[in-house]
Specification:
Layout lengths: L9 E5 L3 H13 L3 E5 L2 H11 L3 E5 L7 H11 L4 E6 L4 H9 L4 E4 L4 H13 L10 E3 L2 E4 L4 E4 L2 E2 L4 H11 L5 E3 H8 L9 H17 L9 E4 L3 E4 L5
Parallel strand pairs: 1-2, 1-3, 3-4, 4-5
Antiparallel strand pairs: 6-7, 7-8, 8-9, 10-12, 11-12
Helix pairs in contact: 2-3, 4-8, 6-8
Bound molecules: calcium ion (CA).
């Protein structure tokens, strides 16, 4: 069973459709997840504060507000929360807006329980147990998987979970070209299929956050885009 400290992962489902909601709730419960279900964005955000779930699944089309707004609010309150958008809108623009708002991943309806479970396993697995990994370094940049902290010199860099995991994958192989497929598999899911826009959006926000922490004397290592292939974190002199 994936989980934190041996307890069942807590999943909060925010979905107004009674059939889809029950399908997902029952499927999660049948596989050992502690799943609760709210029907509105407002109720979902209240539940997220009181229950402190591991993962929130949020529908984009809610009766009282847009799921993107829910994702944005949850992200600002709980930086470490895993947020997965569930959308019937099979539209790249919605997905990009949702990921920009702070979601880590998205699923398109109709949601297969098998796919949902695979994604949840992948997300919950990418968080290493404390004390198991040594810090990763490149020049002034230090990333500590044990504490999930990132420092540029002495400046803390706040990263979302997938930004952190992406930077960790790059820092683990400085100077090496990493393909898009390899990065998707390491950071998201070995069985990832569909749009890799998620990678582009996450990379763009990772670069923004590193640049925001930089100043004239303190530059993060460059991440080079390899057109048609992937990315490379440039090795720096110690
Ligand atoms: Ca809906």
């Amino acid at each position: 069973m994936p989980g934190h400290g041996g307890t069942a992962p807590r999943i909060l489902l925010i979905e107004d459709d009674p059939i889809i909601g029950e399908h997902l709730r029952a499927g999660l419960a049948a596989h050992g997840y502690n799943a609760t279900w709210q029907r509105t964005g407002t109720a979902g955000m209240i539940a997220a504060q009181s229950q402190v779930p591991d993962v929130v699944l949020v529908d984009l089309g809610l009766p009282d507000m847009d799921g993107v707004e829910v994702a944005r609010t949850l992200r600002s309150r709980q930086p470490d929360l895993l947020i997965v958008i569930v959308t019937a809108r099979d539209d790249d623009l919605d997905v990009v807006v949702g990921l920009d708002a702070g979601a880590d991943d998205y699923l398109t309806k109709p949601v297969s329980i098998t796919v949902l479970l695979a994604r949840l396993r992948a997300h919950l697995r990418t968080r290493p147990a404390p004390g198991t990994s040594a810090p990763l370094r490149a020049g002034p940049l230090v990333l500590d998987p044990a504490t999930r902290r990132c420092l540029l010199g002495t400046v803390p860099v706040e990263l979302r979970p997938k930004e952190f995991d992406l930077l960790a994958a790059l820092l683990a192989a400085p100077g090496q070209a990493l393909s898009r497929e390899d990065l998707m598999a390491r950071v998201w899911d070995e069985n990832w299929f569909g749009s890799t826009k998620t990678l582009d959006v996450t990379m763009a926000s990772l670069r923004q956050r590193l640049d925001a922490a930089a100043d004239a004397d303190l530059a993060p290592p460059a991440i080079t885009t390899l057109r048609g292939y992937g990315y490379r974190l440039e090795a720096t002199q110690a």
